[in-house]
Specification:
21% strand, 8-stranded mixed β-sheet
Amino acid sequence: MYDVAIIGAGVAGTFIGRELSKYQLKILIVDRENDVGNETTAANSAIIHAGYDAKANGLKGKFNAPGNAMYDEICEDLDVPFKRIGSLVIGFNDTDHKTIQNLYENGLKNKVPHMRILNHDEVLEMEPHLNNTVYSALYAPTAGIISPWELAIALAENAIENGAELKLETTVTDIKKEEDSYTLITDKGDFTAKYVINCAGVHTDVINNMVAEPYFKIRPKKGNYYVLDKGIDLVNHVIFQCPTDKGKGILIAPTVHGNYLIGPDSEFVEDKDSVATEARCLEYVKETSLLSSAAIPFNKVIRSFAGLRANSDLDDFIIEEAKGAKGFINVAGFESPGLSSIPAVAHYVVELMDKIAGGLTPRADFNPKRRKVVRFNELPEEEKKQLIKENPLYGKVICRCETITEAEIIDSIHRKAGANSVKAVKKRVRPGAGRCQGGFCGPRVVEILARELGVDEKDVPYDSTDAYILTGKTKNEK
């Protein structure tokens, strides 16, 4: 029997799993996908929000700013790319300026530090490629950018190193409530745990309803994005338009790897697996983003994608023991600013667990650090030469766009929670993330995965196990 079973291996489930691995607990993390952070965590704006727009009297307002402040240490410990570049909410008229003033006042209530309201000239001095029609802006220097899937992977890896177990491609189909435990019924067998933490994203309501009366509903919102190529001089901060009832608006955001994100729009969808991009939505993103900057080079788009947000009908995070289900904790409605808040939320969930369990015992041997990742392209020339001398595969470039070597790919496969698909390798070390989107390196990544995993090349998936790439030879051998 496990002490704790966590359903969902996105950034919420992995962060809570890693936090609980500091204690003497037998922990299981299960996810229906074949990789960590493969759903909402893999398709969002990748922003650590400052916290000025979260409602001051709700859980979002309670956890956003404290969660933001914890990112420097966690990313240092786990060797995850993170940059505090600050954000601007820009307005174009008096009405927008009043919204900006309200956001500033709300930010003060949420204890967001160092905010300032900028006038027209100050905004353009800071960001000269914004349109001259800008009226004012709220500047929040504590906002940051991160790679959320790399964070989830690092959290899972560190949790496993500290004793947690991870089971992927394991779908929870039902939960049986026992007298003092829960049995997860899955397509890969049954697992029993004293406590369950529900971090199933857009499916948290479905999971809750397996053990408790329905009291919230998740209706996903879908957002479409563009990804721009590297080497563009556009903006230095995250640029938001004034928020509406649909969300934080269309943004322009640098990424930690040197690209730009443009988006998202926001529409309710009924299908909880609906992540197809739509031409009309992308056109809306394009037209609306040009209101911020006419300098956006849409001829430099290298990819588009869509992601889902777990919007709750209660309009806030739901972080609590389910009604009538002792020891079953929901972490639901975890849309923005969920990524920004999760460090503080994870601490809070541990406090809930400590109270429910009657006390948790810390582990004396907990190791907060994970083994550093070699990012070959970022190293000084002398370090590159030394690495190649020690391992010649660092001199074998597989991805030309991102300068990713074979040694980096091999390492990503053999780490804890290692890569087992082309997309999983891309999420860890970025082959296929550049201008050609895997056109050159994709076949070589398939070859390396097949060799290192000991499988046939035709059995290497792009993403999920049924997302096959190769089906057979197109010509008869002579």
